[in-house]
Specification:
With 253 residues, this protein is an alpha/beta fold. The chain is 41% helix and 17% strand. Strands 3-2-1-4-5-6-7 form a seven-stranded parallel β-sheet, sandwiched between helices. Helix 1 packs across helix 8. The protein is globular and about 50 Å long. The N and C termini lie far apart (44 Å).
Length: 253
């Protein structure tokens, strides 16, 4: 077990994160996943990964609460030391997130701060605090959004924070290069999940609009995304660094 590579996937209990975690396991990678509130869903993902023959464990994490990160990392490194004899990770996938749909003029400071803590500040400092526990030659994958490239009204705060993540990722690639650590962005387009209350999946008008502006003629599904993240954690992807890979079926080309 000690020879297996290990990935930490934040927000890995449902939606895209769940698909990423399972896709990583299918590549022979062990997975630590986090959940915010739904331990039952997280435990189901762990069971699925174990059924694939990989080690998995789930830990609670509020991805927007920076003050909790040190104790979180203590818990997972202790767990890994017990399970594998070593406490380091190989891959960090910053996926955890929440939706914020609000017109620019109506976005409140409270909404903004909540989103900022999860989507930018949390990613910045979780990555910083994880780096001492990340093996040289490892990878960081930050999850952005098509909304950082094209504009849909109502996503000004969310989209601009994802834009900040994309710039940060290039800095990570540059500054961590001496350790052989690569950093890339995966930017999904609109995906049918329960994200934002199922906004894309359940609203027929929204879904039809997305299909109409997508070259491949449909909204995305989680299976479109997880395999791309898993690929970026393989040896075949070792020379991809500092890049933004949009996985949207060709939205708004």
């Amino acid at each position: 077990m000690a020879t297996n590579k290990i990935a930490l996937v934040t927000g890995g209990s449902r939606g895209l994160g769940r698909n990423m975690a399972i896709s990583l396991a299918k590549k022979g990678i062990d997975v630590i996943l986090t959940y915010n509130s739904n331990q039952k869903e997280a435990d189901q993902v762990v069971a699925h990964i174990k059924s694939l023959g990989q080690h998995a464990a789930a830990f609670q994490l509020d991805a927007g609460n920076v003050s909790s990160f040190d104790s979180f990392l203590e818990r997972i490194t202790h767990h890994l030391k017990e399970q594998t004899g070593q406490s380091n990770l190989d891959f960090l996938i910053n996926n955890a997130g929440t939706a914020l749909y609000a017109p620019f003029l109506e976005t409140t400071e409270e909404q903004f701060d909540t989103a900022y803590n999860i989507h930018y500040k949390g990613v910045f400092f979780l990555t910083q605090k994880t780096l001492p526990h990340l093996n040289n030659g490892g990878r960081i994958i930050n999850i952005s959004s098509g909304l950082a490239r094209f504009a849909f009204p109502g996503s000004s705060a969310y989209g601009s924070m994802k834009g900040a993540i994309e710039v940060l990722t290039r800095y990570l690639a540059k500054e961590l290069g001496p350790r052989g650590i690569g950093a890339n962005v995966v930017a999904p387009g609109a995906i049918e999940t329960d994200f934002g209350g199922g906004h894309v999946r359940d609203n027929k008008e929204t879904n039809a609009h997305i299909a109409g502006v997508t070259a491949l003629g449909r909204a995305g599904v989680p299976d479109d995304i997880g395999g791309v993240v898993a690929f970026l954690c393989t040896e075949e992807a070792r020379w991809i660094n500092g890049q933004r890979i949009e996985v949207s079926g060709g939205m708004n080309l």
